[in-house]
């Protein structure tokens, strides 16, 4: 629809009242956060509810109507004694609901927040309905509300386009986790230079390409899932196509937010995520840190997207390398232990296949009980140990072998290595 079509609308009272009721119910004012994609989602929900009620307004028409209503609200607030705004006929009918919508947000972000006035449109404003912009950060509970809206309305999630640069094990793990949620394969695209790893993505219905730029141009959120030394190469390649629409999420071990931000255009939204391989079975442990231009809402969006991958936490960047040691790499330490358990059983005469399946189940069961009981591992360990029984004999042997010290050292070495990789990629990035 052209702009004049958006502006020249005749809304009747019932239609406007319904529109406002929908916005109120969606907590619209609290959820608008300046990111076009998210704002669009909310207006699309409103659009579909209006359509279901028999009112056929485009998303842009709804945005423009909202803009006029908002403008009228501000005018009334600024000049309470002046005649009602003429642009909205019968304004007095809507004023109460508008106040309820607008002021629910003020009570959350505190008094004195009036930068919304920047949004005010005058009657002869240019009517750019896509310029809705809320400079205040969204309070956390509003993002939960938005997540709820998205979850309750699966079609909404299909709006977010997700890209993967790199088609290896970690990209596959995250993609599998994401696709087990609301995200549809049609909204995901993966790139890698060779076709070697692309087949398993195609089997999930995900589009593949050899062009990283194509992934960036078609995505809102892009996972950079190449080996750490390739991150500078890839970011240099895609940088000129990264815009304020994008959220760039790097999973590369060691590569710091400072390096990512240096290689991306100014003000880019970057997030550093450390996942681990069990995302494939939705039992991952993921920790992320936001870059200096990533808002809490960007973190909430990522968290919501990844929630099917496993435990998702946010923390300071300094913890990401530690998480790499304890969990990204830690998974391999647990596999080593599982393998050794099985080999011990084989040594004692059990068939290998049975030994390995029992070892896997033992690790799984121990892990689930540890997580679900919330007990300290030492407590659970003591519950297994009968005085003078078998377990304490086995534990004594493990302690003699220094299992505890070497596991701690393994986490330390992996963490240090992540830090070293970070320094290397920073140097590589600054040479570009
Ligand atoms: N494997 C794991 O358990 C974990 C890996 N990570 C991180 O994930 C990243 C990827 O690791 P993996 O998936 O294990 O590696 P991988 O070797 O399995 O996959 C790397 C992928 O990158 C692709 N690639 C290479 N050059 C490229 C380019 N120029 N453009 C686009 N794609 C390119 C390869 O074709 C391959 O598909 C690494 O940075 C690693 O630190 C993080 C946590 C755990
Ligand atoms: O070994 C690595 O470097 C990657 C990061 C964490 C797990 N795998």
Notable features of this structure?
EC 1.5.1.2, binds (2S)-3,4-dihydro-2H-pyrrole-2-carboxylic acid, 432 residues, alpha/beta, 8 strands, NADP, Pyrroline-COOH_reductase, Pyrroline-5-carboxylate reductase, 3 domains, binds 1,4-dihydronicotinamide adenine dinucleotide
By CATH, the architecture of the largest domain is named: 3-Layer(aba) Sandwich
Assigned CATH class of the largest domain: Alpha Beta
The distinct bound ligands, ions and cofactors come out as: 1,4-dihydronicotinamide adenine dinucleotide, (2S)-3,4-dihydro-2H-pyrrole-2-carboxylic acid
- Given the structure, what is the number of helices? 20
Question: Could you please describe the fold and organization of this structure?
Answer:
The protein is α/β, with parallel strands linked by helices and 432 residues long. It has three domains: 3-151, no CATH class; 160-318, Rossmann fold (3-Layer(aba) Sandwich), CATH 3.40.50; 330-409, Orthogonal Bundle (ProC C-terminal domain-like fold), CATH 1.10.3730. The chain has helices at 3-7, 13-25, 28-31, 36-52, 59-78, 91-109, 140-152, 154-157, 169-179, 199-203, 212-217, 231-238, 257-263, 296-306, 318-328, 330-347, 352-373, 377-384, 390-400, 403-431; strands at 162-165, 188-191, 207-209, 221-224, 247-250, 269-274, 284-290, 310-314. Strands 3-2-1-4-5-6-7-8 form an eight-stranded mixed β-sheet, with helices on both faces. Helix 4 crosses helix 5 and helix 16 crosses helix 17. It starts with a helix and ends with a helix. Residues 105-148 have low confidence and may be disordered. It binds 1,4-dihydronicotinamide adenine dinucleotide and (2S)-3,4-dihydro-2H-pyrrole-2-carboxylic acid (A1CAB). The site of (2S)-3,4-dihydro-2H-pyrrole-2-carboxylic acid has 4 residues, from helix 15.
């Amino acid at each position: 629809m052209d702009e004049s079509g958006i502006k020249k609308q005749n809304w009747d009272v019932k239609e406007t009242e319904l529109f406002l009721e929908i916005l109120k119910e969606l907590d619209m004012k609290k959820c608008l956060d300046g990111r076009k994609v998210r704002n669009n989602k909310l207006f699309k929900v409103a659009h579909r509810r209006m359509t279901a009620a028999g009112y056929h307004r485009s998303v842009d028409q709804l945005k423009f109507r909202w803009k006029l209503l908002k403008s009228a609200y501000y005018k009334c607030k600024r000049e309470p004694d002046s005649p009602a705004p003429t642009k909205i006929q019968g304004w007095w009918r809507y004023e109460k609901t508008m106040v309820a919508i607008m002021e629910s947000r003020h009570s959350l972000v505190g008094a004195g927040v009036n930068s919304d006035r920047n949004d005010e449109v005058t009657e002869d404003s240019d009517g750019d309905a896509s310029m809705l912009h809320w400079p205040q950060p969204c309070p956390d509970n509003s993002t939960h509300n938005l997540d709820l809206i998205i979850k309750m309305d699966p079609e909404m999630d299909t709006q977010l386009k997700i890209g993967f640069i790199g088609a290896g094990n970690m990209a596959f793990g995250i993609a599998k986790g994401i696709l087990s949620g609301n995200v549809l394969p049609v909204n995901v695209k993966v790139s890698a230079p060779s076709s070697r790893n692309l087949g398993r993505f195609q089997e999930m219905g995900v589009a593949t390409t050899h062009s990283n730029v194509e992934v960036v141009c078609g995505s809102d959120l892009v996972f950079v899932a190449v080996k750490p030394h390739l991150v500078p190469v890839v970011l240099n390649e895609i940088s000129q196509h990264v815009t304020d629409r994008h959220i760039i999420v790097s999973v590369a071990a060691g590569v710091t937010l400072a390096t990512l931000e240096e290689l991306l255009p100014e003000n880019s939204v970057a997030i550093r995520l450390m996942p681990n391989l069990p995302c494939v079975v939705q039992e991952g442990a993921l920790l992320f840190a936001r870059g200096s231009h990533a808002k809490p809402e960007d973190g909430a969006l990522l968290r919501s997207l990844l929630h099917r991958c496993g435990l998702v936490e946010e923390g300071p960047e300094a913890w990401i390398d530690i998480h790499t040691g304890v969990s990204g790499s830690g998974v391999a330490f647990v596999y080593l232990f599982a393998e050794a358990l099985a080999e011990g059983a084989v040594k004692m005469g059990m068939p290998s296949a049975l030994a390995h399946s029992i070892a896997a189940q033992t690790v799984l069961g121990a892990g689930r009980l540890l997580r679900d009981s919330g007990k300290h591992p030492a407590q659970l360990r003591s519950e297994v140990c009968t005085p003078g029984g078998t377990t304490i004999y086995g534990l004594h042997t493990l302690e003699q072998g220094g299992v505890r010290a070497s596991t701690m050292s393994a986490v330390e070495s992996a963490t240090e290595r992540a830090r070293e990789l970070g320094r290397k990629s920073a140097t590589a990035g600054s040479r570009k």
